[in-house]
Amino acid sequence: xxxxxxxxxxxxxxxxxxxxxNLPITPEEQAKEAKACFEAGARVIHLHxxxxxxxxxxxxxxxxxxxxxxxxxxxxxxxxxxxxxAVGEAFDKRLAPLSLKPEMGTLNAGTLNFxxxxxxxxxxxxxxxxxxxxxxxxxxxxxxxxxxxxDYVARLVKRGIVTxxxxxxxxxxxxxxxxxxxxxxxxxxxxxLAEEIPTAxxxxxxxxxxxxxxxxxxxxxxxxxxxxxxxxxxxxxxVLADSNAQLVARMARIAEEIGRPIATLEQAREILAL
Length: 274
Hints:
Blueprint: E1 6-9, H1 27-40, E2 42-47, E3 49-50, E4 56-57, H2 60-73, E5 78-81, H3 91-95, E6 104-108, E7 112-114, E8 117-119, H4 123-136, E9 139-144, H5 147-158, E10 168-173, H6 183-196, E11 201-206, H7 211-221, E12 224-227, E13 234-236, E14 239-240, H8 244-258, H9 265-272
Parallel strand pairs: 1-2, 1-12, 2-5, 5-6, 6-9, 9-10, 10-11, 11-12
Antiparallel strand pairs: 3-4, 7-8, 13-14
Helix pairs in contact: 1-2, 1-8, 5-6
């Protein structure tokens, strides 16, 4: 079986310390967590940043501090910054951290209801963001929340707006207002992506209760997996996870049991065409 890339979404923009007391917030805490996740099997850190009081932030200096701290703690790990920010963040602030030229960043492919809010990604802004990825030489990780977004991304590829090959697509499934992470949906999304963008690689982030079902399907289908406190704060129902690394270690252990090797950093870079 081909190597599995595990991504750790260690902080996110919505989870709070009240929800999960072990949430890493400061650059130092994020670096410590990144190292533990790497040792457990993660090869990519999906990075949101916070101010010291836990407020979601898109401040450039905060991204600089966290990126530097993580790189010092785990040389070579792949850092994938979020351009999503918190729901409602101004688009120019969302885009700005690409100027730091991380290896990867997220490109959200559409607007959706997000709980009681609206996560707005206007088509003109998606195009602006795609052009910024090319300007700064950052590899996009395209995030889709339902199947129509795959069709939209395929059109951007055909128009030459999204050009990185192979494109890496993240199915974010289980957001209230988006497609759920039930196994049938993961099967469908993977098949649909293969029809529209045959060269693309894919991963799944199962939100909340869909974390385990979606991850298991991805593991046996040859997809990749995102775990972490951004998506799920529990280890078992009603039992908070001790750390992001604990969630990574579980997926790595299951992968080993079924004979799917965890990617090395070199293999992950090759798969993602970094």
